[in-house]
Amino acid sequence: MQDLLKIYIVIPAYNEARMIARVIRDLFNYGYNNIVIVDDGSSDKTSEIVKKHSVDLVKHPVNMGPGAAIKTGIDYALIKNADIIVTFDADGQHLAKDISNLVKPIIDGEAEITLGNRFLNKMSNVPSFKKIILKLGAVLMYLMYGIISSDTHNGLKALSKTAALKIEIKSTGWEYCSEIVEEIKLKKIKYKEIPVTVKYSNYSIKKGQKIYNSFYIVSKMFLKWIFG
Amino acid sequence: MHPIYIVTIILGVAVLTNIFIKIKDKKLIINELIFWILILAVLILMSVFPGFSVKLAHFLGFKSGFEFFIALSVLVILLFLFNIYKKIRLLEEKLSKLNENIAIKQSLEDSINSTKNNESSNIEFHNSTSFFKNKNKKAD
Description:
The structure holds 2 protein chains of 2 kinds. Chain A is α/β, with parallel strands linked by helices. Chain A is built from 9 helices and 7 strands. Chain A has a 7-stranded mixed β-sheet, sandwiched between helices. Chain A starts with 6 loop residues before the first strand and ends with a helix. In chain B, 13% of the residues are buried. In chain B, α3 crosses α4. The interface between A and B is medium-sized, with 21 and 22 residues.
């Protein structure tokens, strides 16, 4: 069934020249050929490297942030008539083998969106400080939107075409993950959490969200929550 | 005269100087001019007639006229902040949409130019135009 559906993998990338080729190869090895790389105004050779592979490249003229890149990727995949859209990180943290588990509930009609959760199995080597921040974020998500999830800020997600058309991402930064949770709640979209593995390396820790950035995300979320 | 009123007068003179400089440089629009003149009028009234401002402040539950002025200023600043936040958010959304439209159209154009059999790419390009039109309508 998975072979009959058009599954598009959307990868937002900003200065990922070191890792992007490896991520593309991993996806190709698992048979995912519809790949959209959204280069979010990188200043390194990300685009040049992507062009060497048979994938779709969408290049933002200016850097806007991961939220804007994800939105562009989802819209591009919808124009290309994707049935299922999977969002995937460009820093090598996610594993292509997890995608089949992620899209299965959507194919079976159990959910419209599946959210990858790194705490549902014991395979991820999440650093302690990151664990605390993510858990605090989950509590905040519950208090603000009433959604119980221990890992709302995981970039590995799958959306059915109908869910992708319903969800409106307005945030340009990392807070887009919280916005998706908010949209799930507001638009009563059926969702399911799927255990996934997140591999932390020195590179991904360096590239990923910083602790001080989480305070910035929380303040932006609060402002949006208060002022709309 | 209480030192606090001297500070108020100094502040008033600073605001007045700022207004004159901006008028000279033609940088002040009429709304801003009215706003600053109102601020200046309040400052002058408070320092020239401290008794009145003190009475007004006491009536509103403040200890002094200056304290009342500071509280009022904080409120005005918060309103400005809210306004600026809204404007920035709106601009960010518009910029993001523009960025997306340019990026997607460019990518589809590139795929039309690079493929020999470009029928499907042409269809996708037209799809994108209607896709964005529908999205913009929905957003409006």
